[in-house]
From TrEMBL:
Its EC number is 2.3.2.27. It comes from Astatotilapia calliptera (Eastern happy). GO terms for biological process: protein ubiquitination; proteolysis involved in protein catabolic process. One of its GO terms (molecular function) is ubiquitin protein ligase activity. PANTHER family: E3 UBIQUITIN-PROTEIN LIGASE RNF123, RING FINGER AND SRY DOMAIN-CONTAINING. This is E3 ubiquitin-protein ligase RNF123. Pathway: Protein modification; protein ubiquitination. PROSITE patterns: B302_SPRY, ZF_RING_2. The keyword DNA damage does not apply. SMART domains: SPRY.
Amino acid sequence: MSSKGGGTALTRRNYRLASDMDKPRSTGIVNEKMLSDYLHHVFPSTKQGPTLASLRKPLGFQDLPAHLEKLLSEDTPTEDGQAVDGRLGPQPVVLDHTSGFEGLLFVDDDLLGVIGHSNFSSIRATTCVYKGKWAYEVLISSQGLMQIGWCTLSCRFNQEEGVGDTPDSYAYDGNRVRKWNVTTTNYGKSWAAGDIVSCLIDLDEGTITFCLNGQSLGTAFTNIKMGPGIAYFPAISLSFKESVAFNFGSRPLRYPVDGYLPLQNPPAADLMKAHKLLGYIKNVLSTAIDAQEERLVEKDCAVWRLHGEPTVLVTLAHIFNHFAPLMCKVYLVEDVLMNFLLGILEGGGSVDEHPLIQQLLDLFWLLMEDHEVNECLKQLMMSLLRAYRFSPIIPDLGFQIHYLRLTTAILRHEKSRKYLLSNLTFDVLRSVVFFYIKTPLRVKEAGLEELIPTTWWPTHFDKEGKDEREPKDESADERLRRRAYERGCQRLKKRIEVVEELQVQILRLLLNNKDKSTGEASRYIFLNKFRKFLQENASNRGHPTALCPPEYMVCFLHRLITAVRGCWDEGHRKSPSSVSSDEAYVPPQLFYNGKVDYFDLQRLGGLLSHLKKTLKDDLASKANIIIDPAEIQATSMDDLDEDDESGAAQRLPGAVAMGGALARPSWLSSPTLGRANRFLSTAAVSLMTPRRPLSQPEKVKVRTLAVEQRTEEDIEGSHGNDGLLLGRPLEEPDQQIADKSLLEIVDGIVMMYNLSVHQQLGKMVVVSDDVHEYAVALKDTEEKIARCPASRADILEELQKSQKVFAEKLNHLSRRLAWINATIYSKEKMLDIYWLLCVCIRTIEHADNTGSLFAFTSEFYLNVAMNAYSALKNYFSPANGMDELPGYEETLTQLAAILAKHFADPRIVGTDIKDSLMQALASYVCYPQSLRAVERIPEEQRVAMMKNLLAPYEQRPWAQTNWILVRLWRGCGFGYRYTRLPHLLKTKPEDANLPSLQKPCPSLLLQRHMAELLSMDKDMAASFLNSVLNQLNWAFSEFIGMIQEIQQAAERPERNFVDTRQLKVCATCFDLSVSLLRVLEMTVTLVPEIFLDWSRPSAELLLRRLAQLLNQVLNRVTAEKNLFDRVVNLRLPGLESVDHYPILVAVTGILVRILVDGDRQGVSRAASVLLSDPCFQLHSIQHLLGEGGESSSSSAAVASSVRPAVGSLGSSVAAPVPSAAGNSGSSERKHFSLHAYTDYISEEEKHRVELMLAFLTEESKQAAASTAPTSEEDLCPICYAHPISAIFKPCSHKSCKACINQHLMNNKDCFFCKATITGVEDYSKPASS
């Protein structure tokens, strides 16, 4: 056997030679008497016999095999496989995957693990019992819907009925906390992933009992059916994607119960042999031979070393001859070897203080065959995994620490570590379990009550329902409770940190890149396995067993960040010129040089195959990378085939990656992928790496390797080969960053966050939200108790019951929240996510500098930058404030610059990522701190951002753009200082943290940029405003159409239902109309000359269009018996935002600006255009101040009094009492007036509205008096509203200026003759003779 191990490992061939050379005096074969004494001491006989050494038969190595055989055969129990009365079926016991199942299931290779893959699948075991007391255990891997128990052979299951749903089957369901036997009743406790359910059946008494983590849940069923022909099989039914693992006795039961036997016999004979042999090994370890004084010396096992003494080695070789085959059996590994190794570490102290485990592993590799030691290590690590995962949580996490320390000790052994890395880690994905700390669902059992005896929750809330961090009126008792709770949380955090530190130690061992003496360093094995792990999780087509649960990913991500940063900084200390981990980033060449495979993940510029074709010249000129024309051709053919077979949507961009292609798992095989893989194996990339600036670049052929085939040289590079950093662009500094392997791991960490970590961080916030909701409910209940009259004892009793329930729930949740805050939302975890955000920002900045090559960057970097910021702001606060993060202001500004630049970046083509960038920017401008960050970016970038925002709204998603402009204005507009609408103040918002519910924070700086751009660029101003007016026309028309449909549904006598989706669209159209009006108000206020300076080419037309739309809105919202009023008064769920105030105030703001605040000429033009519009009605303006509308209110009330109410989808509402409806309608119409909103509209604003009304009243009187009646022949034949004022050239047809100007925006043909219009001239009617 060859020696690949490190340390003191010796081969079977050379240990004699080494011992003779090193220690000739003390380590030779000892004399016969000494040897006999030594062997008798190591192998003591259990039989009573002569005890004096002089009377014992001499024992030498030639007699040892027979002597050992004799000792091992003493007291050996009967054969394991012998049938036991009361049980029928084969041994070992497994799941019956041939005939005993219903539905679709995935069964593990060992036939003990199972995953449901259909609606409700069932499976039973191969062995049944009919007499006696029997037990088996089920390890719960997911906490969903499952029914576990016993059934008879006659039970017939289907996709709806499983174990417990038929007469002779009995089940426990910890998801719904019930027991099942045709009928169901409450039973037991809820289970969680990581729990162990013991299923016990007593066929002497006829009872079935279940235990959870060793604690009996009580007898579930009595008087079960027994007798001839009745035998019970272990069975389970489970829903889609739920998973468990059975233990029928193939491993020691975790929680054995006295009197109950496992279904599978323990290997009693082998167990006894293994214990005996282990005893002999311990004797060897604790005995030294003093050859000079010819005596045996007792010594401490812990200090034993493998020095190569022939006597000791030959003795151990005889023991291992019997011991090695036994250590391939899982039961013996778990029961004998694992417990022995754990015992070595029980003394405490660091793992380094227990070198015996290293010595024993050297012995294993020396004295066992390769296949034996491989199997032994595999079973040992899997047993440790199970033990770690399914250990009960106790306050000090003692069990978890114990198993992690042994794992660390084993992985310290170089040869064992490399074997496990190559063959177990990530291949068996459960190994990520080692980095997971499970959250206890049952606080009591986890011992959190002792650790956090005092609970606390927020009791002070501000107006918006948010917790106050430092309440001023906090009582002394509350302060004491809060501080006691915080101390308990700190104690818990310190205990969890011990586990986390051990987990980081394990990862540091796996990231070791110095152990090259026995082949490839551990880090490169880890890196290739890690990449494959990411691929299987990135591909949503993965086998359910191959996908890592997101809660595991979160813990793994944090430990990996800590370990990688530790390795990074270690390298930085050795090479100070390199970049520190605080400045870490991923260089842009990783995205295009093909050394790292990004699977089928999207690039910013689209498909990789497309980028390689379109940007091949840029790659050659900027990065000296030449794409082989044959490869482009192959890629093109591959794309065509993909389209033919599976459609473009199914195409895998990863199939054309330049290098580092992963060998895909068999379950991903398909004709398409097979072809992609064939291409990958033959693709070649030619790269040029210039050695001198002026010399001719030299071409280098690079092989495309599968991830598993990559070596250290492919990753780190050597002698002029840059490895992963091949193809450095000129913009990238020529500076050492860090070990290239660490760069790829950092890239993988970013990908992990994108895959599932962010979503999981969002899910865990639910506990904090629950605490908040229960705290609000408890406070509300306590206030009701205080107000409850003494005479209503019945109400008081109910309130006190509610108070008790809320308090108990809060006690439980606050302790659980302490655990989650320590493991997921702690300050350290926040710094990890912040570091990740900074890595993404720096990576994007470096990639952006490469110009067109930026398109190769993976999309997920932008996603992670946006999501990590969102997580820091929404998930970690308020427990940890973002302000305390180092360099936070600068990071905010950098992120603002990225959002501002890239939301309209032509290099980014994906619609999803573009939408995400736009939404992130929209959210960014809603918060004062992040808005100030946008204002801090360079002026050139700010102006470019505003220019992109002011692009015409057609042909792009404009709603978010409009929302951004509105947020920049909110707080400056007329009556626009509100956070929530006046009529919604009494209702509780769903989420006070929503961007739309933040206090106004206008940006005067960005408003100024907008004003300058619109003022200077007349064409842009005209196209922008025309698009805004077009969208307003569309949005308001859609809104009116929808409320007409809703009103018609309400007027029908039968019970009516309105689709909630229709209501939502209706409300959205209203909100869009309001926000578009606010953008118009902003434009009119900042740049009034766009409308009022008629020397600008489009000013008059824009003003006429604006007046036309404002009049339409006013008339629809303020008219008598109007539709708007009726629908608002229905108060339908989903239409809460639809009200008079927001839309009328927005219109008023525009009118006041053009009719009151402008110069005299502008005001005069605006008034004449407004009054000349045929839709203008003075009473609509009077309505704003509550004037001129009373006459219509009674008729509106009568109309509404007979109207049935209409509910949203799924509910209908009976017609209200006529008088009540009439009153409400009357009061709504009568009382709408800007005077009623004193908190929202200032006195000065009201005064300006009164001035506007007086001015318009006077102007309309004068216009009426001065306007001579116009004959029909003189009116515009298009609109019949204005006199003819324009004549067309060359055809001489006529119309008013408004109609022809609007027509010429979209069409150059004459209205009447379709001739092309070349010019328009003023027309005035000649005086009659």
